[in-house]
Amino acid sequence: MYVRKLKRKYVQRLERWTPEKGEIGCKTTEVYLFKRPFDPLCSSKKENAVISSRIHADGIGGIIILNKQAAIPMKRKSSTRKVSYWQIAGKSMKKHWQLYLLVIPPLLFFLIFKYYPMLNAVLAFKDYNVIKGIWGSPWVGFKHFELFFKNPLFWTLLKNTLLLSGYLILAGFPIPIILALMINELRGKRFKKFVQMVTFAPYFISTVVMVSIVMLFLSPRLGFANVVLNYFGLESVNFLGDPGMFRSIYVWSDIWQTAGYSAVIYLAALAGIDPTLYEAAKVDGASRFQKIWHVDLPGIVPTIVIILILNVGNVMAIGFEKVYLLQNPLNQVNSEIIATYVYRIGLLNANYSFATAVGLFNSVINLILLLTVNGLAKRLTNNSIW
Predict the structure, then answer these.
(1) Which tens digit of pLDDT belongs to each residue from 120-140?
(2) What pLDDT does residue 78 have?
(3) In this predicted structure, what is the pLDDT of residue 81?
(4) Are residues 210 and 329 in the same domain?
């Protein structure tokens, strides 16, 4: 114990040292460099008892080896000028230019299609005129925001958007985790690959084809669901015409399509867990469920937190295409969300300033939710995006 305290007090770093001919020391041993010039006259008797011999190499520092000594002074720090950040970056780019070359295409994509269009967000504060253009149109301040907030449909649109997004997160977020844990527990390699393929394949179906499948499956006359109901003597149900069923149809069809893809992320996280943890759990007599609860879940908590933060950050940006394709006059009470309203009122009626204002409102709400959830996750779990 006292040796460790002594090392913390005097030792700067630990190295391996092999003394040359004529130097005092052993063949190959651990070498401790002083933190500061060490004066043997200032040492106590207890230190002398622990370390039998030391040296004071030119008042600069030296090396201590337990029960050995060597006269190798510690080098002084050279007084070189500081290298700037740009010089370091330039050297790194010259050395790893191939990697920087690979970064250019995605960087250009984000600059051109993501960041550059943000400049046109100023359209939300102007009364857009096609002839005058974006920058020549007159300023109107928060006129379009006020029109949207005072619209009688505002609270209905906000409620439908939040309920649909919340339902999707609550029902769809745990299922990929459960699916990944179940696949990870499978022992047969062929069956495991088959399950992964079956659950992953629907992700490659386009949204239009997916909606067509749902419509055919739930058709009031020839749909498979109503054929089964008629077989058991029940009446046909117009699923897509019932406003109360719209959210469930949207959410569970989305879960069926994306659960396998989302599970791949958690399977990758499970593959990174240290195998020695499973061996220790096995030695302790843990069952398979206990291994999942005490090893698997804690190992993928950082991944779960990051995915949850990203999902909550897109609450207001729920997919427009699928909602619009499943929407009809009968279920419009519950299916009309902010995205579809912007499309109908803002784009079809050529009210571009109003559409931009509503889109900017959505983006600000998403940013606030993202920052809030990220801050809470950092406090509670010490895991966050940044």
Answers:
(1) 888 899 988 888 888 888 999
(2) 52
(3) 60
(4) yes
Residues 33 and 171 in one domain: no
pTM of this structure:
0.71
Q: Do the Cβ atoms of 327 and 314 come closer than 8 Å?
A: no
Q: In whole angstroms, give the CA distance from residue 252 to residue 262.
A: 14
Domain of residue 172, CATH code: 1.10.3720.10
pLDDT attached to residue 251: 94
Does residue 18 share a domain with residue 150? no
117 and 148 housed in the same domain:
no
The answer to the question of residue 197 being in a domain is yes
Question: What Cα–Cα distance (Å) separates residue 217 from each residue in 45, 166, 168, 202, 384?
Answer: 89, 25, 21, 15, 41
**Rounded distance between C-alpha atoms, residue 170 and residue 173, angstroms:** 6
Low-confidence ranges of the chain (pLDDT < 50): 1-75
pLDDT attached to residue 220? 87
Give 259: exposed, middle or buried? Use CB within 10 Å, 0-12, 13-18, 19+.
Answer: buried
* Per-residue pLDDT at 74: 46
What is the DSSP code (8-state) at residue 295?
I
Residue 56's pLDDT is: 38
The alpha carbon of 13 is separated from its chain's Cα centroid by a whole number of angstroms, namely 37
CA distance 45 to 37: 19
Residue 96: which domain range? 85-125
Cα 155 to chain center, whole Å? 31
**Interhelix angle for 189-200 vs 243-271, to 10°?**
140
The angle formed by the CA atoms of residues 343, 345 and 346, to the nearest 5 degrees, is 65
- The residues, any chain, with a CB within 8 Å of residue 326's CB and separated by 6 or more, are 211, 214, 215, 240, 246, 249, 250, 335
Structural domain includes residue 113 = yes
147 and 117, same domain (yes or no): no
Q: How far is CA 268 from CA 183, 282, 289, in A?
A: 12, 22, 20
Q: How many independent structural domains does the chain possess?
A: 3
For residue 71, the SS3 value is coil
Same domain (yes/no): 154, 301: yes
Clarify whether residues 109 and 185 are in a common domain: no
Which residue is associated with the tokens 């609860």?
293
